[in-house]
Write a structure and sequence with these properties.
- With 189 residues, the chain is mainly alpha-helical.
- It has eight helices and four strands; from the N terminus they run E-E-H-H-H-H-H-E-H-H-E-H.
- Helix 1 packs across helix 4, helix 2 crosses helix 3 and helix 5 (87-105) packs across helix 6 (112-130).
- The longest helix has 19 residues, at 87-105.
Length: 189
């Protein structure tokens, strides 16, 4: 049931070269919605269309907009709903790229979770500077976004650890004192 990434049977119009987005027809989006809504697993649908789960999730999130397009009687094969990347997103990605390269030069181990938090923080700061024009927009810094960003920013040399380490700052600060007490009580050297 899975399709080749290089050849498409018309459901996904032109899987693009490196760094470009797939263009998905409204007809394909409706088929995806019709498969997921009755209960088919997101992962199975994603594999059958050779897409990421995050892409399927975005389609489902925009279900109302897609279905409105269908009702407007526009031919489904000719209509493509696309969202243009905003200036704030581009600016945030530039700043994040500079920050990541700086961390790499300092030999700081980057964790995916840290990068995601930094990206969200930069996005929110830039959004506040822009004001009302971005109200209602959100940015999740998902795994899919990160991998696409890394390719767009040409950050192939920057190594990122996928597993986030749980850091208990209070315990880390209290540990030296606890260790001193234990060594004194046990008369250890």
């Amino acid at each position: 049931m899975s399709r080749s990434r290089h050849k498409s049977s018309g459901d996904v119009a032109g899987t693009a070269e490196k760094g470009q987005c797939q263009v998905i027809t409204v007809e394909t989006k409706v088929k995806i919605i019709e498969r997921v809504e009755p209960g088919e697993k997101l992962l199975d649908v994603a594999h059958s269309y050779n897409m990421n789960c995050s892409t399927i999730g975005t389609i489902l999130k925009n279900k109302d907009t897609i279905m409105e397009r269908v009702k407007s009687a526009v031919p489904m094969m000719s209509t493509i709903i696309s969202k243009k990347r905003g200036k704030v997103m581009g600016e945030m990605e530039k700043l994040l790229s500079v920050w990541m390269q700086d961390q790499h030069q300092r030999r700081v181990l980057l964790r995916l979770m840290l990068i995601q938090v930094k990206a969200k923080s930069l996005y929110e700061d830039l959004k506040m500077k822009r004001g009302e024009e971005l109200e209602g927009t959100s940015f999740n810094a998902s795994h899919g976004w990160f991998h696409q960003f890394k390719a767009r920013a040409n950050l192939h040399k920057v190594k990122v650890s996928g597993k986030a380490v749980s850091v208990d700052m209070v315990a880390a600060q209290e540990f030296p004192e606890m260790l001193r007490e234990i060594t004194e009580e046990g008369k250890f050297t």
